Amino acid sequence: MAEPVGSADCPEREPEPKLILGEVHTCVLPHRWELTGRAAVDLLRTRPDDVARLSERPNRYARSPDVLTGVDCHLPSASGLGTRGIGTVSSWATVTEGRLLQAGALCGVAAEGPGRRRPWGHRLRRPGVIEPYGRPAEQDVAAGWLGTERRPGDLDLTAIAARTLTRVLRDPALDGQPPFAAGVTRLRWVALRADDGEAARLEQFTLAEKGLRTTTLQVPPGVRADAVAAFCHDLALHDWLLTTLLAMVERSELGSAQGRGVLTALRPAVDHVMHLWMPAARVDRSLHRLWDDVEHEPGFTRQWQNLVRRIRDQLALHAAAGLLP
Predict the structure, then answer these.
(1) C-alpha to C-alpha distance for 166 and 171, rounded to whole angstroms
(2) SS3 (DSSP) at 257
(3) Given this model, what pLDDT does residue 8 score?
(4) Is 118 helix (H, G, I), strand (E, B) or coil?
(5) Is residue 102 within 8 Å of residue 25, measured between CB atoms?
(6) Which of 272, 257, 275 has the alpha carbon at shortest distance from 318?
(7) Region for 115 from its dihedrals, namely left if φ exceeds 0, alpha if ψ lies in -120 to 50, beta otherwise
(8) Which of 51, 201, 212, 243 could form a disulfide with 218 if both were Cys (CB 3.0 to 4.6 A apart)?
(9) What rounded mean pLDDT belongs to the chain?
(10) Helix ranges restricted to H, the chain
């Protein structure tokens, strides 16, 4: 059972959770025109008295206020243990460069709970934290969250992120006409606290079915959950860009077809996608090493640059042949 309980504006005051769970959904805004910064802020306002944040450097980025959802549920479990947990989940939405929409949800899982029910006022002092009844095994909860099996009553960050995404997509300010065809991707992530002295590390990144990706991170002590989430949003955004560009190249039949049809199919990539690649633009310095891991394996930027070169070479060849409009 889950319900919104308010905005997250209280700092965390108790020991940081050693396990953080999250999910982020990414898609193109269904709107013909690129949103201005002010329009993006208005779109992401959750209440009349809330104000979304806007940043213009190094790219245009708007972020909604956090919304807290109260949950009383079973924690995910690969073994089926299903420890009960009570607390709040943080969720929010972002718009990047007036084109890309992301919605995320996260919660930290405390190492152990109080063993008795506490008032909601206590839960609100720890926004985005779930306290278990007992001591759940971190690896068991992590594996349960990354898996695809869900039991009735389990923590469902997917539904909370999807609800946040849907709220923005249904806003009447959007005309419902995306500038190009693209799917929605979902990144389901887990972050485990490293021991003192250990650096951040990306332990795995996996492509699953139906637009789902999963990743496991190791993050140093003291790094806030929202900083970890910012990295995961950045990873999800660039995975979506790479996935979308690959789909555009495939639809264009580049290498098989010739003529203006290829150029028409590739034009949305040039107009709306290729300039958005900017890894780690808003990632905490303590987590930059995670992007080094991404570049090593699976090698996002190498694949991206290869696709971009191929598109630009094709445009150059068509220009030389006088086929460009």
Answers:
(1) 9
(2) strand
(3) 47
(4) coil
(5) yes
(6) 257
(7) left
(8) 201
(9) 89
(10) 37-44, 120-124, 138-146, 157-169, 225-252, 260-268, 288-296, 300-320
- Calpha distance 28→178 (Å, rounded): 7
Cα separation, 134 vs 136, in Å, equals 6
What is the tens place of the pLDDT at every residue in 106-133?
A: 999 998 776 666 776 777 788 999 999 8
pLDDT at res. 71:
94
CA distance linking residue 127 with residue 103, whole number of Å: 18
The candidate with the shortest Cα–Cα distance to 85, out of 106, 66, 67, 108, is: 108
Q: What is the pLDDT of residues 25-74, one digit of tens each?
A: 999 999 999 999 999 999 999 877 788 899 999 999 999 999 999 999 99
The C-alpha angle 292, 144, 2, rounded to 5 degrees, equals 105
How far is residue 132's CA from residue 154's CA, in Å, rounded to a whole number?
Answer: 13
Return the amino acid letter for 24.
V
Closest CA to 5 of 69, 91, 73, 84: 69
Question: At 282, which amino acid appears?
Answer: R
Degrees, nearest 5: CA angle 317-304-174 = 95
Per-residue pLDDT at 193 = 93
Q: How many CB atoms lie within 10 A of CB 318?
A: 18
Point out the residues of the chain with pLDDT beneath 50. 1, 3, 6-12
Cα(279)–Cα(266) distance, rounded to whole angstroms?
Answer: 23
How far is 295 from 305, CA to CA, in rounded Å?
12
Q: How are beta strands 100-109 and 129-132 bridged, if at all?
A: parallel
How long is the chain? 325
Q: What is the dihedral of CA 36, 40, 41, 44, to 10 degrees?
A: 170
| Residue for token pair 């002295």 | 197
The pair of structure tokens assigned to 315 is 């445009």
Q: What is the largest CA-CA distance in the chain?
A: 75
Q: What is the DSSP string of 124-139?
A: HTSTTEEEESS---HH
DSSP three-state, residue 294: helix
As given in the structure block, the two tokens for residue 200 are 């951040």
